[in-house]
């Protein structure tokens, strides 16, 4: 059998500010023959996510940084095409973390089989995957929202934000979103059925705009943006409210410290709880999450958008697009 070669994308330099195409390079690697207990996967789909920007920086974090001139990592869905593993027969569809490449080998550690009969396999990179679990954990485990809670979600039309909005609505919450275009605002109102949306690119003052939409204040803020959005949320927060710190995409490419939020002193008087979380700490919640969110999908109460890029060579472009507002919903690459 001819050796299998795999195209893969490596990081050749660490971005300064917004990532650029010259930070990435496509290389070809040869896949070694399978050993006992291994199987070979041909990727079909991969995900690009904002958290990956943090791994492109050197230094300590909750997850090791990407190494230069080594293949990048990320969520992926592929098909087992060769196997020496009894639990992963040929034809199995699997979820792994070896994106940014065509082929990969595994012993099964950290790999899950997925059922294409339940939903299209790419859904396990979005609503039924880490994206959906992140939204579910933030609302259920961190904020513990209840019916009648007023929830503000930033980047509300994004992959996590859109799911968070709809889970909160399903729980009887009053939901206000933030988005950066009229098209995204319209989708949130008409498709995701949120109660109100502010267009932050047209707002002269985020705090004033949020107060107008939530004159009685907000109880929970699902933060995907940080910066001025977090500042506005603190201004609008009711006493004993909760800020769910999921992401701060507005700060990921800054070369200087963010000037906002400038009102953190209000956290004391309002007795606000600000809590960050890492979704990988909540793997034990996956069965409950799948039951609840799977039911919402089956009933048609949860919808989402996808921005699909064709071909591995477009992965870098797809990733950079996350920071330019070019994607609607979940950004995926079909390999």
Task: Name its key features.
alpha/beta, 335 residues, six-stranded parallel β-sheet
Low-pLDDT segments, ≥5 res: none
Sketch the major β-sheet. Answer: 7 strands, mixed
Number of helices: 9
Order of helices and strands: EEEHEEEEHEHEHEHEHEHEHEHE
**Shape summary:** globular
The average pLDDT is 96
Helix content: 10-25%
The end-to-end distance, rounded to whole angstroms, is 23 Å
Strand content: 25-35%
Structural class: alpha/beta
Instruction: Say how many strands there are.
Output: 15
Radius of gyration over all CA atoms, rounded: 21 Å
List the helices and strands and how they pair.
Layout (H helix, E strand, L loop, with lengths): L3 E8 L12 E8 L7 E9 L4 H4 L20 E8 L9 E4 L6 E4 L5 E2 L16 H14 L6 E4 L5 H12 L3 E6 L2 H9 L5 E4 L6 H8 L4 E6 L3 H10 E9 L20 H4 L3 E4 L9 H13 L7 E5 L4 H7 L8 E5 L1
Helix pairs in contact: 2-3, 2-8, 5-6
Can you put this structure into words, describing what you see?
The chain has helices spanning 52-55, 130-143, 159-170, 182-190, 206-213, 227-236, 266-269, 286-298, 315-321; strands spanning 4-11, 24-31, 39-47, 76-83, 93-96, 103-106, 112-113, 150-153, 174-179, 196-199, 218-223, 237-245, 273-276, 306-310, 330-334. It is α/β, with parallel strands linked by helices and 335 residues long. The protein is globular and about 65 Å long. It is built from nine helices and 15 strands. Strands 3, 4, 5, 6, 7, 14 and 15 form a seven-stranded mixed sheet that branches. Strands 10-9-8-11-12-13 form a six-stranded parallel sheet, sandwiched between helices.
